[in-house]
Amino acid sequence: MRIAIEHRTQYRFSQAQDRIVQMLRLTPTDTQDQTVVSWRIGVDCDARLREAIDGFGNAVTMLYAEGPIAALELSVIGEVLTSENAGVICGAAEPLPPLFYLRSTPRTQASVTLAEFAADVAAGEALDGLHRLNAALHGRFPDAPDLPDRGCAAAQAFAAKTVTSRDVAQIFIAGARHLGAPARYVSGYRTDGEAHSAPHAWAEAYVEALGWIGFDPATGLSPDESYVRVAVGLDATGAAPIAGTRVGHGREQLDVDLHVDRLGGEE
């Protein structure tokens, strides 16, 4: 599948900022089933962009802009070719061993009720259990839209009535780790014919003899060729598409415009 992505993020400040520094995890990398045809990150002010690879193997772009800055717009435009892989990740950069992803974070700690839920629905063989956990979370939270990160922890989200795709991905991760399966958070894009106000989020878990496998509790299925995988981390904070600081006073207003469209098959 050929997927076109246009992702614009606009910041407006009530007072001009003296300096802005951001880490952008907005660039996908090639895997066996994902090829980046073209990709460009733009900014509408005088800024320095420096590309690097972080400790998780993600492509990152550091942005440095000196003020005064009253507004800033980031634009991402690109095309990616994808193919069906039954959720199995092959050919991705893996600088860290799977056991690293058993490490819990404040946002992925399982509460007693979440741990009991995971143990009840996922009893049995590892792969089947993870698929059952994925399906059970979708059954519990059938509507998990793509919305900006609210900073919610997995235990807090599990007790809530409404969640985002970020929240339910972290719930899956907390449950999988409780079951002894290394699991990580994934940020990326999904084409489903609907408009979104934030990138999509899902999870990957490691299964012996198979490797890393994607699970999307927002759909109850594994990611297919309609997904573009961008960044991984221990939780939503560690794989945030945009993270950074600003030096200056005043309020910040954020607007996101995201279009992910299917263009057709491979050429």
Report on this structure.
- Helix content is 16%, strand content 43%.
- It is α+β, with helices and mostly antiparallel strands and 267 residues long.
- It has two domains: 2-81 and 242-264, Immunoglobulin-like (Sandwich), CATH 2.60.40; 82-233, C8orf32 fold.
- The strands form two sheets. Strands 1, 2, 3, 4, 9 and 10 form a six-stranded antiparallel beta sheet that branches.
- Strand 6 and strand 7 form a beta hairpin.
- The chain is globular.
- The N and C termini lie close together (9 Å).
Q: Number of DSSP strands? A: 10
Low-confidence stretches: none
Mean pLDDT: 94
Helix fraction bin: 10-25%
Short précis:
This protein is an alpha+beta fold and 267 residues long.
